[in-house]
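FAQ

Q: What does a record look like?
A: Structure on top, sequence underneath. For example:
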């Protein structure tokens, strides 16, 4: 069987099923084999109904009396029924799973696995999974669960995999660093486990395989980057010393170290490829300013690309005021910029040193005279093609030095894999004067007593407030409060306060007007979505409320919290939770710590690499098995990749491996 053959060549997969699979990225036989179970149900030890106790249970029985009703309070369907065995019967209920009505044959026995708990005054089995007893090997009791894709449910995938069981013997070896035949065994036991131990061994190998591919891609990217040529930018010690002496503040040691690492990179005639990562408020913009000044001294042009007009404008205002006295010509170029034609002509003629802008920098008619340094802020907001387009605007045959910045601290294990040998500078100190932010978790029910008086005090002190909402408009299917509804409620609660709202659908010019008013202290409370998440700097804002905080990721909450604490006064973050449930571990960690690097490690352990990486860069990392907190496995894969690359013939011999890493090369490359 050819692994890269179309998926429809597999037994049981016709044109209609193939079309559905392809919609979800399962195009080839290989894709199908690597569509692994997301979990395994264990039906090994069912208990009789007469013996069950509250908690997670497995029972075996027949089901009858199925019916469906709708809850009055919410748009919720409830399927109810009775499960019986020889010893008794219990009530079962599924929420918003109407297909359960037609799933069961009342004459057949099923395994049910779920929580037996008190609901509406009586004990019921709540939303259990179910499997036909005849489909489960009683000596094993393990049932693979696949992610449903469109009309294809988990049971459909299980049926299709069963039909293709014979092809597992034909799977060739994939990596040169492991025992022969281990790959086909791992894939077989991932789909057809015969014990918990067989699942663990299968996952151990497949995790190693994924890490090997990812790390190899990063190493090959590094190798390709080193073949490129760039303009060497010599270090000008006297001018840099003079620049630092005239600053109204002293750099942190972390800023000094990062700047020195950048200077050393730019002196080389191969392009710098450095990631500058720092916690919110750690001073990345100042390091970018020093780097831009150093580059301008050598006569090359600098481009700074920001994801939003608000952030680009803020960078322009800060950097222009800082660099103007040193003779650096700076312009702002966004979609709303007037006199674009004149500005672009000056850029083309080399009369502009530093261009700060948004996607307007990427247009074909934005032509640089001698682009030598590209700085990309919040680099995860830009795809690979966009970054490459800007890089191609450098002098013919030369690549610009590239500095990318992110305010999302990246766990060390993620650096080792996703970013491979990419040079990384870390700002893990806050400049003097930055205020510590005190964080509190409060229930929405307690807001009137514990939060509203604090907002009143904050406004009375002439300080400002952010209030963050999850949604722009109200949704009857969700309990979240929208920006518009919260805006109206706050106007009633604080009638003397000046309140405005902001969200992503507001036109850019209007957004800029509102943010300018907020920066100029003309607005007391700004109700907003996460459009203000990154980079916006309002020193007078000392309080932020994040509503429905339980719905945000840890990294995003930390970013939002970083909008305050930028001035000289004590600052506060209130995490507002709905319902009466105990705060999640995620929120508790945020309440305890303001260290973004610590929180990033916690986030990695809690959510997994795919979600973390999704917040760092477009394009999914899509690690199905590997855990990036497993440093031992990462180190093993690192060492094996280095051995692999010592034999150039390997790149030709292991063809499937080289095809497989292409996607990772596209994700990890920064040039």
């Amino acid at each position: 069987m050819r692994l890269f053959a179309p998926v429809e060549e597999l037994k049981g997969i016709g044109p209609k099923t193939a079309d559905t699979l392809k919609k979800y990225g399962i195009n080839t036989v290989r894709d199908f084999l690597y569509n692994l179970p997301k979990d395994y149900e264990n039906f090994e030890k069912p208990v009789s109904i007469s013996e069950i106790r509250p908690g997670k249970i497995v029972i075996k029985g027949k089901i009858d009396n199925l019916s469906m009703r709708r809850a009055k309070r919410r748009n919720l369907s409830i399927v109810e029924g009775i499960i019986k065995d020889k010893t008794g019967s219990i009530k079962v209920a599924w929420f918003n799973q109407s297909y359960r009505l037609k799933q069961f044959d009342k004459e057949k026995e099923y395994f049910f696995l779920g929580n037996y708990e008190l609901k509406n005054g009586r004990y019921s089995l709540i939303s259990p999974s179910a499997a036909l007893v005849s489909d489960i090997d009683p000596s094993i009791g393990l049932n693979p669960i696949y992610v449903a894709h469109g009309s294809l449910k988990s049971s459909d995938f299980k049926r299709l995999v069963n039909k293709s069981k014979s092809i597992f013997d034909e799977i060739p070896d994939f990596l040169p660093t492991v025992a022969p035949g281990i790959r086909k065994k791992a894939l077989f036991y991932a789909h057809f486990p015969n014990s918990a131990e067989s699942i663990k061994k299968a996952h151990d190998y497949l995790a190693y395989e994924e890490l090997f591919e990812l790390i190899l891609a990063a190493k090959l990217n590094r190798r390709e980057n080193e073949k490129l040529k760039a303009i060497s930018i010599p270090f000008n010690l006297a001018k840099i010393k003079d620049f630092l002496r005239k600053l109204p503040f002293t750099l942190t040691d972390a800023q000094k170290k990062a700047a020195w690492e950048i200077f050393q990179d730019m002196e080389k005639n191969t392009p710098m490829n450095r990631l500058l990562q720092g916690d919110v408020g750690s001073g990345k913009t100042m390091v970018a300013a020093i780097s831009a000044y150093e580059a301008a001294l050598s006569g090359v042009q600098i481009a700074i690309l920001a994801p939003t007009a608000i952030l680009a404008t803020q960078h322009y205002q800060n950097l222009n005021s800082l660099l103007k006295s040193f003779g650096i010509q700076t312009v702002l170029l966004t979609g709303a910029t007037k006199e674009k034609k004149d500005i672009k002509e000056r850029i083309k003629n080399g009369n502009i040193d530093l261009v700060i802008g948004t996607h307007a920098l990427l247009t074909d008619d934005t032509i640089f005279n001698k682009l030598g340094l590209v700085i990309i802020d919040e680099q995860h907001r830009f795809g690979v093609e966009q970054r490459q387009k800007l890089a191609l605007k450098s002098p013919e045959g030369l690549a610009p030095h590239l500095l990318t910045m992110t305010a999302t601290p990246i766990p060390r294990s993620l650096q080792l894999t996703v970013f491979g040998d990419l040079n990384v500078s870390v700002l893990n100190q806050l400049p003097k004067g930055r205020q510590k932010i005190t964080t509190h978790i409060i229930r929405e029910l307690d807001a009137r007593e514990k939060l509203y008086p604090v907002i009143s005090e904050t406004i009375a002190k002439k300080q400002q407030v952010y209030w963050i909402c999850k949604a722009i408009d109200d949704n009857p299917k969700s309990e979240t409060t929208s920006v518009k509804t919260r805006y109206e409620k706050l106007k009633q609660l604080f009638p003397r306060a000046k309140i405005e709202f902001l969200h992503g659908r507001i036109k850019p010019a209007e957004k800029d007007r509102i943010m300018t008013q907020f920066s100029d202290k003309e607005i007391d409370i700004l109700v907003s979505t996460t459009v203000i998440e990154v980079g916006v700097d309002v020193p007078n804002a000392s309080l932020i409320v994040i509503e429905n905080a339980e719905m945000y990721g840890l990294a995003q909450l930390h970013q939002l919290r970083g909008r305050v604490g930028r001035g000289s006064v004590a600052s506060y973050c209130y995490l507002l939770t709905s319902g009466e449930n105990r705060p999640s571990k995620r929120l508790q960690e945020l309440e305890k710590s303001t260290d973004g690097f610590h929180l990033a490690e916690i986030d990695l352990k809690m959510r997994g690499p795919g979600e973390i990486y999704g917040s760092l860069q477009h394009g999914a990392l899509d690690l199905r098995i590997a855990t990036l907190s497993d440093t031992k496995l990462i180190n093993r894969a690192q060492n094996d990749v280095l051995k692999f690359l010592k034999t150039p013939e390997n790149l030709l011999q292991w063809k499937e491996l080289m095809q497989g890493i292409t996607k990772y090369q596209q994700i990890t490359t920064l040039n």
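Q: Is there anything notable about this one?
A: The chain has four domains: 1-38+154-170, 41-145, 237-427, 437-593.
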